[in-house]
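Bumping my old thread because nobody answered last time. Still need a sequence for this structure:
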């Protein structure tokens, strides 16, 4: 089996050595450089990569990835698309060869999109950018996906979660180009439900609440937008927009609709918990939090959010129980939160505070405990693709 890794790059010399060390298990490494002014090209060539330079104008990710795909040698058996800020954990080739079968055309693997403050995996989902040659092309100017060239609707897709690709981006890298490319993507294909969802989410990231609300509702109104986890995410994002605008009622309404859409996911329950917290509905914070933490199986798609699986649900419940006056429950939830993030100074201080209280005190409540750090409304890009 011959494996080729292919990628696009621009001004990424800081990542070259780490990336090439990770990708050296492949037979070939091909890179389309789209206009580097640093030493990216020289360093890649020195490390043995096949490098070609080409300016893609007007810029779009699908065009660049398709040109990089054109560099793949003809006798390649398996193509692996990565970016230079990503690294495979060692042994990925052996696992790939074991998982790939005759007739396989795509392979899913674990993708760690981001990391928490302690360096632990955050948003994690299954990615599918390992594929057979001559079968796919990339489509969409941004948030590009592989699309079959023969129109087939079903094919052999295998999975090995033991293949792990880690994302370690440059935190200073701008995402300014995403919004105009997403708006272009929607203009090119206005009936694409995935594009509508992504554009609404991008408006949310930028704090453009009304634009986000309009676009997310457009996504939900599409009769063919039937993938429940993504519909649930649009509803959660609508809740977040309304909370940011100070509309607590609609914030809760959309959180409840998100729960009804996908009650098996933890994320909508945590969104309802946040809506209850914003309304100072402490009983609601406890109810939705308890429902959330009883869900222990994380989704394998990009829909999962790191905050829902960290200390936040327990932390919010601890504070809510403290407000209610149930100090035993507050301490128990605070301990669970601290167990998940034992180095967090705020959680440590809260546990000292809860532990020092012996009985409910209206005078004490609201003084001393530091409130949970929820979202401000503008959240980080979760990245990823529909799996």
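Sorry it took so long. Here it is:
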């Amino acid at each position: 089996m011959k494996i080729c890794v292919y990628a696009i790059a621009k001004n990424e010399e800081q990542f070259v050595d780490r990336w090439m060390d990770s990708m050296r298990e492949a037979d070939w490494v091909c890179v389309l450089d789209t206009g580097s002014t640093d030493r990216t090209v020289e360093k890649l060539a020195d490390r043995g990569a096949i490098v070609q330079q080409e300016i893609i104008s007007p810029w779009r990710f699908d065009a660049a990835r398709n040109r990089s795909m054109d560099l793949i040698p003809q006798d390649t058996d398996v193509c692996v698309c990565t970016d230079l800020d990503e690294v495979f954990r060692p042994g990925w080739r052996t696992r790939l060869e074991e998982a790939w079968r005759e007739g396989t055309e795509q392979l899913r693997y674990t993708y760690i999109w981001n990391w928490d403050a302690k360096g632990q995996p955050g948003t994690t989902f299954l990615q599918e950018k390992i594929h057979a040659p001559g079968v796919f092309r990339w489509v969409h100017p941004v948030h590009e996906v592989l699309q079959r060239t023969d129109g087939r609707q079903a094919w052999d897709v295998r999975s090995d979660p033991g293949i792990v690709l880690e994302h370690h981006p440059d935190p200073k890298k701008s995402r300014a180009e995403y919004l105009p490319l997403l708006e272009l993507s929607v203009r090119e294909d206005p009936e694409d439900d995935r594009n509508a969802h992504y554009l609404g989410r991008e408006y949310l990231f930028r704090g453009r609440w009304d634009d986000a609300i309009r676009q997310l509702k457009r996504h939900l109104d599409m009769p063919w937008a039937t993938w429940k986890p993504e519909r649930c995410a649009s509803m959660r994002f609508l809740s977040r927009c309304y909370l940011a605008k100070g509309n607590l009622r609609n914030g809760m309404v959309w959180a409840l609709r998100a729960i009804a859409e996908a009650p098996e996911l933890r994320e909508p329950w945590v969104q309802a918990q946040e809506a209850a917290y914003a309304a100072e509905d402490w009983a609601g914070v406890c109810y939705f939090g308890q429902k959330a933490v009883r869900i222990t199986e994380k989704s394998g798609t990009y829909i999962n959010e790191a905050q829902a699986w960290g200390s936040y649900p327990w932390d919010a419940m601890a504070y809510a129980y403290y407000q209610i006056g149930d100090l035993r429950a507050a301490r128990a939830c605070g301990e669970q939160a601290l167990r998940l993030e034992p180095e967090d100074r705020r959680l440590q201080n809260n546990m000292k505070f809860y532990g020092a209280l012996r009985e409910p005190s209206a005078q004490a409540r609201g003084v001393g405990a530091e409130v949970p750090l929820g979202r401000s409304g503008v959240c980080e890009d979760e990245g990823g693709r529909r799996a």
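Residues 3-167 form a domain with the Spore Coat Polysaccharide Biosynthesis Protein SpsA; Chain A fold (CATH 3.90.550.10). Let me know if any region looks off to you.
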